[in-house]
Amino acid sequence: MRDKGLSRFHRSFAAIGLSFIGCILMVCLIPSCVISDYSHLSQTGHKTLTKGTLPKVFLAEFSSAVYDASIDAYGNHFSGLLVIKRMKGETFRTVLTTKFGSNLFDFSFPEGSDSLVVHQCREELNRPRFISLYKRDINLLLMRDILPAQAKVLQSKSGKGPVYRIKKPEGRHFYYLNENEKQLRKIEQAGFMKGKRVMISLKSANSMQPSRIVINHQGVDLEVELALIKSN
């Protein structure tokens, strides 16, 4: 009986040990998965980012812009005109209308908050998942409340300007600058698990706002393309 009791004890102890080792391996593998997506970047230093050291997508002088919009979401395609307008201070409003004038959605982003206020949203887009992702995407573009921040300075193998990496509670933010370091060419947010990433490509005809914005979500059926029509 004593031998059987010891045997059961040893088996239980071994199972606990294996579970503990599994947890340790999971913790160790999570950062490595994220790092593998950015193996083309090498660290060159650290930098304290303050106002003026990291250019914004929409500068303080920005008032409003109209984009030709194309949205593919969950098997549906939507197109129309997206208006991005600064209401007051750092409060913004985005309205997507069809070319016939009917609203597909109308959202506002209050100053001092990363929340989204739904004023109107068409049924096909009125999904918690879409609204959550759109809120994250626009907040990434608005770049509010991220400074001051401690950033790692990275350099890509292609040599196209520096990359600033900022660690946030929801993951890591990567800001890719042009060679002259005056404009952003890409923003990425990587979660702590591989396959959870949003990529925003930017092309600018001037320094006021980007002329083209493409938003892709890794592992999510959602893509947004915006082409500038006019701005004020």
Number of E strands = 13
Output the number of helix runs.
2
Please give the CATH architecture of the largest domain.
Clam
Structural class: alpha+beta
Sequence stretches where pLDDT stays below 50 over 5 or more residues? 13-34
CATH topology of the largest domain: outer membrane lipoprotein receptor (LolB), chain A
Query: How would you name the oligomeric state of the polypeptide chains in this document?
Result: single chain
Distance between the termini: 86 Å
- State which percent range the strand residues make up: 35-45%
The overall number of domains is: 2
The residue fraction in helices comes out at 10-25%
| Strand arrangement, major sheet | 1-7-8-9-10-11-12-13-2-3-4-5-6
Mean pLDDT: 83
Overall geometry: globular
Q: How do you describe this structure in short?
A:
The protein is of the alpha+beta class and 232 residues long.
Give the helix/strand layout.
Elements: H1 2-36, E1 41-49, E2 64-73, E3 76-88, E4 91-97, E5 103-109, E6 117-121, H2 128-142, E7 149-156, E8 162-168, E9 171-177, E10 184-190, E11 197-203, E12 212-218, E13 222-231
Antiparallel strand pairs: 1-7, 2-3, 2-13, 3-4, 4-5, 5-6, 7-8, 8-9, 9-10, 10-11, 11-12, 12-13
